[in-house]
Each structure stands twice: as C-alpha cells, then as structure tokens.
Design a protein that fits this description.
mainly alpha; 17 helices
Length: about 500
C-alpha cells in the first residue's frame, strides 16, 4: 500500500511512559458521551417539541448540532497535528459540556437550537482526535482490535441511550438527556489530563481560517435551502435562488483556497489514495442513512404506531446492539478476509436494513422496526471500523489527525445534509398531504403533529384529524426510507470499487 508522507508508524517521543489502559478508558468515556448524545436526544425529541412547540424546527435541533460538528472537525483535526491531541481534545470536551448544560435550560425551540450549536462546536473535537490518539499509541497490528473497541462505544452507549432517554422523558424530565453527559465528560477530562503525555515539536504553522469560514458558509446556506425549500419559500423563489448562488460561490472559493493555502484545512492530495477517497464518500452516504434512522424512526413508532417513548427508544437500541457486535468482529474479519470483503459485508447489511424499513407498515409493530435498525447497525459497525484502520495505516503521524478528521467530516457532513434534506422532505410531503386531505372545518398544519407525538394531547384530537396526521406522517416517512435505501445502494456500489487489501 502506498504511504502518504513518512512512515505510518512514526510516533512522537514521550517524556513520561504512557499508561495506555487509562488513556483508552478516558477516550472511550469521551466517545461514549458523544455517541449517547445522538440516540438519547432522538428519543426525547417528541417530548421536547410537545413541551417547547415548533415541530417545523424539528430538524434544526439535529442540523444545528451537526453543522458545527461537521465544520469544526477538520479544524480540530488540523490543530491536533500542530498543537498535539491533548489540548485540542480537552478544549472540545469543555465546550461540549457547557453546551450540554445550557441545552437543559432552554425555554424555547430557538434557544435549544442555539445551545445545540455550542454543543456541536465542542463535539467536533471528540471523535476525530480520540480516534487519532488510538492511532498514535497503538501499533499497526493492534489498531484493528482497539479501533473495533472504540467504534463499538457508539453502539454500546446507544444501547443505553434510547432506553435511558425514554425512561427520563416518561418519569422525570427531558432536560436530563442533556445533563447526563456532564459527569461522563468530567471523568474523561480528568483521565486525559493526568495520563496522556505528549512531546510536540514547537514550530510556527499557518491555520486555514479562511477555508473554514468559506466551508461553514457554503454548508450552512445549503442546509437552509434543504430545510426551508418548499415550505417557507418555494423552490423557484428569490431567497432560495440567492442562497444557492451563495452556497456554490462559497464552495468554489473554498476549493481555490485549499489549493493555494500553505497549510490547507483539507489537503486534497490525501484523497488521491483510492481507499481514502472511497472510505470518505461512503462515510458521506452512510451519514445520511444514520440520521434518517436515528432522527425519524422514533417519530414513526410514537406518532404512527402510537407506542411510548421507551418502546421507540428500544427500536433504536437494536441498531446499537448490531453496531458494537459488528465493530468487535470487524477487527478479526479484517485479519481473516481483508478490508474489501469486510466492507462489502457491511454494505450488504445496510441494504437489508433499509429494505426492511421501506417495506414496514404501521400495523407491523415496533419489532420489525427494530429488526431493520439492527441490520443498519451491523453495516455501520463493519464499515466505520474498516475505514478508520485503513486510513490511519495509509498516512504519517503529521497527516493522521487531518486524515482521520476528513473521514469523520464526511460522515458528519452526511449527517448534516441528511438531517436537512430528510427534514425538508418530511416537512414538504406532510405539508402537501395535509393541505389536500385536512377535514373540512379544521385547521391541520405541520405543527399540529406536535400533538400526535403526545399520547394525552393525541386523545383530545378528533379521530378524523388523527387519521389524516398519521396517514400524512406515514407517507412522509416512507419517502424518507426510500431515500435511505437509495443511499445504501450507492454505498454498496462504491465499496465494490475498493482494492482487495485497501
């Protein structure tokens, strides 16, 4: 395999001996905190919108968090190559905890979205820098096994996330789904502070802030188009066309900036390696799939199947069971059958899970939803672990942070675009259906769906209104899962282009 830069196994000298088990534990706690955030909030969202209102802003609770995560992940990856992993990760954990604390005090959906931006700004450091540290302190032959452990944290934490989120919402308050992160983050901070020691060569390096600003502008405007297009503004309206021009211009300038920058935020030469290119593209498509499942499956189970938040949470738990199992097995598979075969197994599982969700009917019950969720989790576990291992094997220490971050960025970008795209599709489809099928003499809008997600308020609605809302939501979510299936097919096609050994 062609190496990019110097030898991939190069490591920096340490002033003190590393206590790897303690570092691994602290890193896994940080990853646990980051991972549980997704599923625990997804489960609580119906209760949050029922309390705060603003169903039309539903997707922005995810999009705002994911936007900041997606944009900052590259900056943090680059900074970790310059300043070292430790200070960057500690800073990210601190900001994440501040955002988590504020989210619990939100009194409106707008406030919650602002605080989610802060939370996402800190979260951008956690996954890429934590994964890079593992690449630094473990040898090549150990990375597959240890990265498998690290990837499994996303699943293990999410096993607890949906169930815990449902229990907190039903018995206490949704505010605790944000505050549960705080003790985890504090423990992780302490462990990294005391046990991770680095000796980083001090030299002046340029940071590509202009590139970061241009990328932020292009992604945020594109997201606004996807969320509000067809709902607040028509697709051919002046605001949508203007935003599209800004997004395209900003992205074009970003590419030009990266080509001329001395220290580009996204060094495009690493993408010339086929394994990195395909791994990053598939991470983009699977990111869209993941947000489609975690954001909207609880809405279907609660709003259409009329099940409790706890039951909705357990349907996502199935994905979380499949993910860690696949992640831990992937280390063994990588050694036995190779990178390509392991990745293709993951791609096949993604298609199976997506097909189950597309064929799911309201009367099927949550068990079938959990079954589809499980297969998607297996696919995510196999592909994500394979990608991180092969990327870190391909690049040198000086590029390991940004290379790892680029893969995380593409998945986060997929999450971000997916949340906006799928949220926009749901709003548009639901709006169109309700406009043509609302019972005469009643005013049924997208925000009326707030009441559908609360069992007590749902019982107060006329049967005809409940029927129309559930039919509209079923149609909207079916469309979303057709899109998810299409992305799973694209993922599999891309995986067939991998070389046998990466």
């Amino acid at each position: 395999m062609r190496k990019l830069g110097k030898t991939a196994d190069r490591s920096k000298k340490q002033h003190k001996p590393l206590k790897r088990p303690f570092i691994l534990t602290a890193i896994m706690l940080a990853m646990f905190m980051n991972a549980i955030e997704g599923t625990i909030v997804s489960t609580a969202m119906p209760a949050i919108v029922s309390d705060l209102g603003g169903f039309s802003l539903y997707s922005w609770v995810f999009s705002g968090y994911l936007l900041m995560n997606a944009v900052t992940v590259l900056i943090y990856g680059k900074l970790s190559d310059i300043l070292g992993r430790k200070p960057v990760l500690l800073f990210g954990i601190t900001v994440f905890l501040i955002g988590s604390l504020l989210c619990g005090f939100a009194n409106s959906m707008t406030e919650l979205i602002i605080y989610r931006f802060i939370q996402g700004f800190g979260a951008g450091a956690v996954a890429p820098v934590a994964s890079t540290i593992i690449g630094d302190i473990y040898k090549n032959e150990e990375r597959a096994r240890v990265q498998g452990y690290l990837s499994s944290v996303w699943g293990i934490s999410a096993v607890m996330g949906p169930a815990l989120g449902g229990l907190l919402v039903e018995n206490l308050t949704w505010k605790l789904v944000f505050w549960v992160n705080i003790p985890l983050g504090i423990l992780s901070f302490i462990g990294i502070w005391f046990f991770l020691h680095e000796n980083i060569e001090k030299k002046k390096r340029d940071i590509d802030y202009l590139g970061a600003a241009l990328l932020t502008l292009s992604i945020s405007t594109f997201m606004l188009i996807l969320v509000e297009g067809g709902v607040k503004w028509s697709w051919a309206s002046v605001p949508i066309i203007s935003l599209a021009i800004v997004a395209l211009l900003a992205f074009s300038l970003f590419i030009l900036q990266e080509k001329r920058a001395a220290e580009p935020m996204m060094p495009f030469e690493i993408w010339q390696e086929r394994s990195i290119l395909i791994a990053n593209l598939v991470s983009l498509t699977t990111g869209v799939m993941m947000i489609g499942l975690s954001s909207f499956l609880p809405t279907f189970v609660q709003g259409v199947m009329e099940r409790s938040p706890t039951v909705a949470g357990f349907t996502l738990t199935a994905m979380s069971i499949g993910w860690p199992i696949a992640s831990m097995v992937s280390g063994w598979l990588l050694m036995k059958i190779g990178f390509k075969a392991t990745s293709l197994l993951g791609g096949s599982s993604l298609i199976i899970g997506s097909l189950i969700l597309v064929l799911m009917k309201p009367e099927a019950g949550p068990l079938l939803a959990a079954f589809g969720s499980f297969f998607v989790g297996v696919g995510m576990g196999l592909t994500s672990t394979s990608f991180i291992v092969v990327i870190q094997k391909t690049v040198s220490w000086e590029r390991r942070g940004i290379a790892t971050a680029s893969n995380m960025f593409m998945r986060n970008l997929g999450n971000t675009v997916g949340a906006a795209l799928l949220g926009g599709v749901m709003n548009t489809r639901l709006h169109d259906y309700l406009s043509g099928h609302a019972p005469k003499g009643t005013e049924v809008t997208i925000d009326t769906a707030n009441k559908l997600l609360n069992s007590e308020e749902r019982e107060l609605l006329p049967d005809a209104v409940v029927k129309v809302l559930q039919e509209g939501l079923t149609l909207s979510l079916h469309t979303i899962y057709l899109i998810v299936l299409a992305f799973s097919a694209v993922s599999f096609i891309l995986l067939t282009r991998l070389r046998k050994n990466g």
